[in-house]
Design brief:
The protein is built from 13 helices and 16 strands. With 411 residues, it is α+β, with helices and mostly antiparallel strands. The chain has 3 domains: 98 residues, no CATH class; 184 residues, Glycosyltransferase (Alpha/alpha barrel); 51 residues, no CATH class. Strand 11 and strand 12 form a beta hairpin. The longest helix is centred in the N-terminal third of the chain and has 18 residues. The model has no long low-confidence stretch (mean pLDDT 94).
């Protein structure tokens, strides 16, 4: 995908989907949620492999979002159109001669060879820049890509869907927070925190959320996805900052989500508030499609809250939700990927690090030391959790066994 035309080799970011098996020809519309989920995927891949191309792809995708899809106040826009001048993809394709005119004859030919640009074209007589025929992704054409980007900007202004949707913004908050934790680049965390502040200011009234913000107005409606995705974003921010305010807000919103959407008789969560819509059925969306379902994300939220807080109420809610979703997933497990991941996390918990702070200032230094995926709990000093050697102390449990307390954080 990183080599293909589905990734905008000039301006970065991913298009909505590919129309062929090689990821060469995309539907050129760029969606916020696709790019959020892909930043997460590439970031997670980098955390496991340390392969630089995964981090590079995540960073370039983030660069696109910051440049093209971020409002001045910090919220993220929904989509960028595929059409220009009445033709899909015209903005993104090049003639062979255009490349030579912009880059010059000699450098243009070298560039064209690298990016699969020919006089006949690779898509309806035009060329989609790609690296599919290269054995590697490394090249020395950063200057040429910048020249082509500037030239392409003169063509037209692509239509921007400037609605700011809570659930999709929550996904991008998760993406930037995760990217911060592998890159340790503070600006990514600041982007995530600014977007969360936007939600807090414009799409949140205490524990009541709104679905959409557009033209200075918020919608009155709200859906399960808005609560579920925002809960996940708050839990992610908690792990990136160790700021318990995010965790406290997540717990309050979880209580509200259960109150609004839970089916107390049959388990699971409704898409809408049962008392506030006129549909003849109360829909429950359970399958994961282009984005995960609200029920899958709520499973994840409840599992993580159970692991972080160790409260019985979250364990009971998580087990009820797992039982409900398991019955739905058994006939089509491929359509329940995030739910299955949540079950995996429940049955095989990540390492749990309980931190007893000796000094509050120690918290700041810890942000860049914590393992990429773990469960973090901060507790006051007590008989059960004491500071050893008069220093901040870590109690680490992994693979169903707990180790002696230590002053050194070992991943």
């Amino acid at each position: 995908m990183r080599k293909g035309g589905i990734f905008d080799q000039i301006g970065y970011g991913f298009s909505r989907y590919s129309t062929d098996r090689y990821f060469l020809v995309p539907h050129f519309e760029k969606m916020l949620y696709d790019n959020a989920l892909l930043i997460m995927a590439y970031t997670a891949a980098y955390s496991m492999t340390n392969h630089p191309i995964y981090l590079d792809t995540a960073k370039k995708t983030a660069e696109y979002i910051l440049r093209e899809m971020t409002s001045p106040e910090g919220g993220f826009y929904s989509a960028q159109d595929a059409d220009s001048e009445g033709t899909e993809g015209k903005f993104y394709t090049f003639d062979y001669d255009e490349i030579l005119n912009v880059l010059g004859e000699e450098q243009g030919r070298k560039f064209a060879e690298c990016f699969d640009i020919t006089p006949d074209g690779n898509f309806e007589g035009k060329n989609i820049l790609n690296l599919l025929k290269n054995n590697h992704l490394h090249h020395s054409f950063d200057r040429e890509l910048k020249l082509l980007y500037d030239d392409r900007k003169k063509r037209t202004v692509l239509h921007l869907d400037d609605k700011i949707l809570l659930s999709w913004n929550a996904l991008m908050i998760i993406a930037f927070s995760m990217l911060f934790r592998v890159s340790h680049q503070e600006s990514y965390l600041e982007t995530a925190k600014k977007a969360q502040k936007f939600i807090e200011m414009h799409l949140c009234d205490k524990n009541q959320l709104c679905h959409c913000w557009c033209n200075g107005q918020h919608s009155e409606k709200v859906f399960l996805d808005d609560y579920a995705f925002y809960l996940a974003a708050l839990l992610e921010l908690y792990h990136s900052t160790l700021n318990s305010d995010y965790l406290d807000t997540a717990e309050k919103l979880c209580t509200e989500a259960v109150r609004k959407f839970a089916d107390y008789q049959n388990n699971g969560f409704y898409l809408c508030e049962p008392d506030h819509h006129t549909l003849f059925l109360d829909p429950k969306e359970t399958t994961d499609g282009a984005i995960p379902s609200g029920n899958s994300v709520m499973t994840y939220d409840l599992v993580r809250l159970c692991q972080i807080t160790e409260q019985e109420k979250y364990r009971e809610l998580a087990e009820k939700q797992i039982t409900f979703m398991s019955a739905q997933a058994q006939h089509d497990p491929a359509g329940y990927s995030l739910f299955l991941l949540s079950v995996l996390l429940y049955e095989n918990p990540p390492q749990h690090i309980t931190i007893v702070l000796k000094h509050d200032d120690d918290l700041f230094a810890l942000k860049n030391q914590l393992p990429f995926f773990s469960t973090i709990t901060i507790v006051p000093e007590s008989k059960a959790y004491s500071c050893i050697n008069d220093k901040t102390t870590f109690y680490i449990c992994r693979d169903h066994q707990c180790f002696p307390p230590t002053n050194e954080l070992i991943g």
